[in-house]
Request: fold
Amino acid sequence: MLIWINGAFGAGKSTLAEELKSRLPDALDYDPEYVGYLLTKWVPAPDSHDFQDLPLWRRMVAEFAIGLWEEYRRPLIVPMTLVNAAYRDEIFDALAAAKVPLLHVFLDVPADEVRRRIVEQVIIDGVEQADETREFRLRNVERCVAARAHLPAETLVLAGDRHTPAELADLVLAAA
Reply:
């Protein structure tokens, strides 16, 4: 099964992914952000500076996940903010067509809490990149939080600010 952990930047996706990985030691970590880093090294960045706006990113994310699933048949843990409904559907439809079992988890955290977390996050980059990353995340808080209203019905929505990472992992594993 592929467990896609979605939500705003700062919602706790990476923390939940680490907790799940400790409980599912055979699981593979897959962070689609690295696909974006790879692409932006060689292709022109979109005007938005969001690599998710590159159609090739969406195609590569889906194909890489499909390849991991088909090759290794191990759980995949995917922490990635994916709030554009059309992009989400594009990727998830490709996974469904390849018969990759998917559990879509959305960590629902209020905007004020997300902002607080982003400001306090330690971002491992150079100072300039860290500032740019933080500003990008802060600019997108409202859009990310608003995505909650447009989730598919089968999405497992969890209050990321009301549970510990261990409790969230319990809920995810129960749903899986």
Observations:
- The chain is about 50% helix and 15% strand.
- The chain has one domain: 2-31+75-175.
- Helices lie at 13-23, 33-42, 55-72, 85-97, 111-120, 127-139, 141-146, 165-175.
- The mean pLDDT is 94.
